[in-house]
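This week, look over our next protein:
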Amino acid sequence: ASADPTKGRFRDFFKVSVKNMVRTYWDKKNRRTGVAYDVTQHEQTEEENEAEDAWTANWQRTVLDATWRSLEAFQRANSGCVYYTLLQLRAANPDDDSPQLAEKLSEVTKKPWRADAARQQLRRARLRFAQLLLEELSRSMKNATPDEIEEDLIDLGLMEYVRPFLPDD
């Protein structure tokens, strides 16, 4: 007897449900409508792809050459350092194990090297090479952020050289 048909919890619940249903319907409908986009308009020609690949290969070679020169200068500046020599030996003999690498390093430096010492020096040389590579890339970019450097490393195919030395984040 005292119930008012214009008021009540069920009426409020029903009005909110209908509003949400309509809003959901319009959101789905608007989401499904696409934009007319001609993909062929932005496809690169084969010549453009080849030119871009050549430029990327040239830039990669330039960065690596500069990094090797920096590592060589680092070795010359620090007596007893064999980073450049050791990485050159590793690059020339990728299948050699630690004892073989230590033997070749001993021949080049005229100083005896144990396998474990050569392995440790190789790890340090790789770390220094990665640091110098990152420095070289950051010098080539104006106000480089870590994300931009990471993107450049990926684009140039150089991420494998520094990945083990980067923080997880």
The two ends are 67 Å apart (CA to CA). The first helix runs from residue 9 to 32. The chain has seven helices and no strands.
